[in-house]
Amino acid sequence: MDTQATQLRPSRSNVQGTVSTLSAALPFLALLVVGVLFPLFGGGYWGVIATRACVYWVLVSGLNLVVGFAGQIAIGWVALLTLGAYTTSVLAAGNVMPALPPYLALAIAAVVGAIFGLIIGLPALRLRTFYFAITTLGFATIVTQVALAWQSVTGGGVGVAGPVLPEPFASQWGFYYFCFGLAAICTWMTANIAASRFGRALTAIRDAEVAAEASGIAKPALLGAVFLFSGAVAAVAGGLFAALQSYITPDAFTLDLSVLFFIAILIGGRGSILGPLLGTILLTVLPEFAAPLVAWSTFLYAALLLVIVLVIPGGIAELLDFKNRRPLESDRAIIPRPDLLERLLGTTPDAGALTLQQVALSFGGVQAIDGLDLEIRPGQVHGLIGPNGSGKTTTLNVISGYYAPQRGAVRLNDTAMPVLARHQRAHMRIARTFQTPRIVGSASVLQNVMIGGTIDGEGTFVESLLSLPRHRRDEAMLRDTAMLALAAVGLERLAQVRADRLQHSELRFTEIARALMLRPAFLLLDEPAAGLSAEEIARLSALLLAIARAGTGVLLVEHHPDLIFDICHYVTVLNLGKTLAAGTPAEIRSHREVINAYLGA
Amino acid sequence: MSITRRQVLASGAAAIAGSFVKPAIAAKEPILIGYLPALTGPSSSTGVGINRGIQLAVQEINAGGGIDGRQIELITRDTQSDPTKAVNGAAELTRGQKVSVVFGPVNSGESLAVVPLLARTNTPQVHPCWVDSLTDPKKYPMCFRNAPTNQQIGGAANRYVVDVLKRKKVAVISDTTGYGTASVNAYVPMLKAKGAEVVYQGNVDAANPDLKPELLRMQSAGAEAIMPWSVNAGFLSRIINTRGQMQWDVPIVGQTTLGSGQTQALLEKPEYWAKVYPNNFRPVCSAADGKLSNRTDAFVDRLKSAKIEMGDTLLWWIALGYDSPRMIAEAMKNVGTEPEQVVAYLNKLKEFPGVYGDISFTPDRHDGYPDDEVVMVEANSLKNGSFRLAPGYGS
Amino acid sequence: MVQSIVLSGVAIGCIYALIAITYNVMFSASRVFSFTAGTLGMLGGVLGSLFIARMGMPVAVGFLLALAGGAVLGIVTEIVAVRPVLKSLDQHLYVLSTLALALMVQQFTAIEWSTEPQPFPRLFDIARGEFDQQFWLPMLACAVVIVGLELLYRHSLIGHAFLAIAEDSFAARALGLPERGLRMASFALAGVIGALAGFAGGEMLLAFFANAPMLTFYGFVPVALGGMGNNRGAVVAGLLLGLFQQSANFLVGGIFASVAVFTVFIIVLLARPEGLAGSALRRRV
Asked: Is the pLDDT of residue A420 over 90?
């Protein structure tokens, strides 16, 4: 009976998934129809405006992955538009070498744009948000200055003629369809990414970076891929922009334009494709209706941005998200199904033990851990207790690779673990949760859990971009596994709900489900019972014991002595960074010093 | 094939019918003239000045019965000094409003984008922008310029420095905008060709608050004249002020903005404006005796009676704006509003009497402004937007 | 020539340093960098010109009103663009809200004041010399602010409270310090410093709306290089920037000077993200 039910469940989620995919695709299909039929009811003038909206969207679609998904504040993306416009125009005009066909020039511009996208983007890996924003502004200035100075190639202040595409794309509507086609392809590609493990990983980097690291997401590689893509489409947009403008001078690439791209995304809503698409159309078209307000347009955009940030941070996408306005059941309970764990986790091969030997670490003058020994064995729950500041979370962070121990070693199966390589912990099947749940609030619970399985996907970024078979297989596999994990922790009915609507206890179980996606050999839990009711703690206990039974070694940092003594096979008591006592719960309970220092208090 | 023939026949019939009913329709329908000024944004003072002249001319034409009884309606799109908005505006004028002819844009950066677009829609265009490549009777057969080219502007300044002031060592400086860098690159070879020695040549960020090092460098290079090319009043005033502080007795010869009210407002001392010679245009300048020509005098009176402000702008901007719709109206009065006819008429235009200057075109030359009328003036003679000719232009 | 470059380099460097201090004062009160820092500098110049040159007020009155204007914008920044997004600091919404506010003020100034640079009045009616007031005023302003802040932070009760907030706002609140009031006071103070920078540099930079983005960028360079929140580092880095920029302007010309400044900025920053003066990473988990 039970097995039947669980076999049914994934397929039902597939059906649900298909239905929700269809309803999500509906606005895009409507826009596609409007776009294709546009020449029938739009005049020639609106054709220019529509072409412009398409060109801008080609750029914004890529920038959306950088700003909307990865959360990198790239204000100066007009730099890449400029670069693409000049590369295409100069190559097509034959200023430096024999004139190339415009399509080839566009393709070369895409390659150049990709490279520069990477160069402009890479500081994001080292720099804090505001710093990065300022550096992108600087790049925008530089590109314009170089265009001015490099007169022999760019024409300097006098500029250069834009490319003219050959028939059938030379006429106004021909060019419109060319741009519209590219815009549609960009929409499709970025929507594919958004719905892939890469898109989810980007939002994790944006909203829950430590959780992304714990899930094994390598930020440099992922952001690098996104910057390459975003730079390439921005440069293509630049080439189209030059063709639309017919002639480009450095004055055409204003910072206002850059701000427009940036604001279009935020008005649309972070982590959405439809929202920024509508935002781009809105900001391109609005000044044409409000011609008397043209002088105030940047002021109005800025005011709009302020209102969006303060009142509806989710932007247009949030306004359109009707599904998540329906109230949730108020008396819902989390009923874990430990019986499903076996299927979820499989039989974990014996990974050996995770050991800390004489680990010491101090911050400034404070000795956080001072010569700690710890051994976590597969199949056991290991409790770590101690008063505040005794070094419990620090121990967890040393294992996760946030701190390098100043002395001693952390070993996995007698091999020293690499220091500070945080995202590699996931590859060693070491999963963790956090004291305050690190969740992507704007994503669904299911998507949050799927983040945990990111490293199990096999397809590449490009395969996801083009929705090739391996990408679709990955997605189906991750969705099914995530549904199973959600069922195991008792949250499958909330799978499609936005995570920020959940209660605190539900977030704790969501984090556990995400951690289980790794089929962890070791699971590190940082106060998982904090904020849970007695009933929920009991269910958590059963769940954790079942996880251990499946072969996983569990390290449990907790304040609740009951939970520790109920389920732990072994307990270590810390005080001031040192082991005060270690042993079975029974031994600890009778330990004199422990009673004095901790339990008695 | 048959469709084509039927179309030809139909259009022929329409043309015949049209010639009979024309007055009746014409009395009702206004003639639409597209207009793309930059009325706001960073380089809008030109557009604001031109706009005053245009509005006055259109009022006068319409008050005088319009063109064959049809009123002129200006369809205005403010480009905000932004090329992308200019392109949108041009599309609206030609494809949306279907105007008969376009005047503008009035800034080169915008015109560079708009001129090829209008050429594609077969719309006659008149613009006053200086960049040389903005007319080309082969590529843009319908585009005319009723103002000087950069060659004429720079040529006049160079002639004044080398031939009149007899300075052989020249410093050429600009800001880092498109206009500035392009001007330096164009004028330095011209100066050299005239036998002058360019002892300093540089592009300086207009925001740079202190130009003293640059002027010191010019001085030590032995410069005998400074030629600034910029439309940025802040930048130009810093050059003039620094020269004054250094008490360096050297003439400054260059861009018309050297003589604008905005530059004047930024001067530390009024006397620093002496020996500053901006470009201007002979018909709107007064001779050494302070008198304007009769034609211009009459125009100024008309401006006064129409209560048009002249003190905060330049007379040549108003005059240019005033002449442009009148020139277009004259063509339409003679040959109607068909694009080909208007262009054919303009192609043979000979000495259209403008306040700003007499404009002539030929089929091979669409730059209508006469060379000799580009002159240099004394900046500190500015009064009601007009200047006195610089010494050496004795009549 | 060298003397002239050094003089203007140090003077402009002092203005950059003051804007950097503006960033820092706001940062230490709220952990937020605000795009309005350069806007404050621009406003100091525009308001000074408005009150003194256009409305004919006495210099002292115009000066105080310009500083008051800066304080008002500082407080508005705190209320409108910072306070509402402080609770979600890790989402970096402050970057967007302060950018929006800065753009609004800048556009408003462009349209209502002028898109052309306007003259800034000469403050003291004394003859122009080599070491002119347009150079020593920014230096004096910078010195006054540095000394004033040191005195404030070290020797006054409210200064100690500022420092406590900067060190650990959570603990400060636990101690019963009025965190919100202190934050508003910090932003007002930052507004005054920013406006002072623009006012003292008014004669050099003129009353021009486009000074806002320029100062926002060049004022942040010393923050990044000097280490965030480090005022002494900011002053040193600001002076170096001013000197470097003026010499680059002179040596390689206007176009490549900005390229050079930016390239050096980015290389230094990539090599030492925490700035030349340096400070440790924050705990994240």
From this structure: no
User: Is there a contact between A157 and B180 if contact means CB atoms under 8 Å apart?
Assistant: yes
Residue by residue, what is the 3-state secondary structure of A373-428? EEEECCCCEEEEECCCCCCHHHHHHHHHCCCCCCEEEEEECCEECCCCCCCHHHHC
Compute the distance between CA of residue C42 and CA of residue C213 in angstroms, rounded to an integer: 9
Interface test with A, best of B40, B77, B78, B87 (most A CBs within 10 A): B87
pLDDT value of position B27: 54
- If interface means Cβ-Cβ distance under 8 Å, which residues of chain A face chain B? 43-49, 52, 145, 148-149, 151, 156-159, 161, 172, 244-252, 254, 256-257, 287-288, 291, 294-295
- Confirm whether A172 is domain-assigned: yes
CB contact under 8 A, A209 and C95: no
Residue in chain A closest to C32 (alpha carbons) equals A130
Domain boundaries C2-122+130-271, CATH class: mainly alpha
DSSP B136: -
Asked if residue A181 belongs to a domain, the reply is yes
Same domain, A303 and A432: no
**If you average pLDDT over residues A402-425, what whole number do you get?**
85
Q: What is the pLDDT of residues B43-70, one digit of tens each?
A: 778 888 999 999 999 999 999 999 988 9
CATH code, domain carrying A100: 1.10.3470
Q: Are residues A146 and A271 in the same domain?
A: yes
Span of B113-127, B156-170, C63-77, C221-235 with lowest mean pLDDT: C221-235
Asked if residue A169 and residue A48 are part of one domain, the reply reads yes
| Residues 6 or more apart in contact with residue A414 via CB below 8 angstroms | A352
Give the residue from chain A lying closest to C283, CA to CA. Answer: A402
Average pLDDT over residues C41-56: 96
**Would an 8 Å CB–CB cutoff place C92 in contact with chain A?**
yes
- Residue-wise DSSP of A568-598: -SEEEEEETTEEEEEE-HHHHHT-HHHIIII
CATH number at residue A395: 3.40.50.300
pLDDT tens sequence across A318-374: 888 888 888 888 778 888 898 888 888 876 666 688 999 999 988 877 788 888 899
Structure tokens at A294: 């043209």
Q: Is C146 on the interface with A (CB under 8 A)?
A: no
Q: At what angle do helices A255-268 and A78-93 cross, to 10 degrees?
A: 120
Query: For C140-179, what is each residue's pLDDT tens digit?
Result: 999 999 999 989 888 888 888 887 777 776 777 777 778 8
Whether residue B333 is predicted with pLDDT greater than 90 in this model: the reply is yes
Beta bridge partners of A407: A360
From the list A52, A257, A294, the residue facing B80 with the nearest CB is: A294
Tokens of A584: 């079975």
**A331 part of a folded domain:** no
Q: Tell me which residues of chain A, numbers 230 to 289, contact chain C at a CB-CB cutoff of 8 Å.
A: 255, 259, 266
**How many cross-chain Cβ pairs, A to B, lie less than 8 Å apart?**
102
Give the best residue of A130, A307, A318 to mutate against chain C (max C CB count within 10 A). Answer: A130
CA dihedral B212, B213, B216, B218 (to 10 degrees): -110
State ipTM.
Answer: 0.89
- Can you tell me which residue has the tokens 């929705």? A467
**pLDDT tens digits, B232-268:** 888 999 999 999 999 999 999 999 999 988 899 899 8
The beta-carbon neighbor of C103 closest among A148, A302, A402 is: A302
**Residue A431 is part of which domain span?**
338-599
**Domain total in chain A:** 2
The domain segmentation of chain C, as residue ranges, is 2-122+130-271
Examine residue A577 and state whether it is found in any structural domain, yes or no.
yes
**pLDDT higher than 60, residue A421:** yes
Q: Which residues 323-342 of B have a C-beta within 8 angstroms of C?
A: none
B271 CB within 8 Å of a chain C CB: no
Chains that touch C (3 or more CB pairs under 8 A): A, B
Residue A290 sits in the same domain as residue A227: yes
Report the distance separating Cα A378 and Cα A355, nearest Å.
11
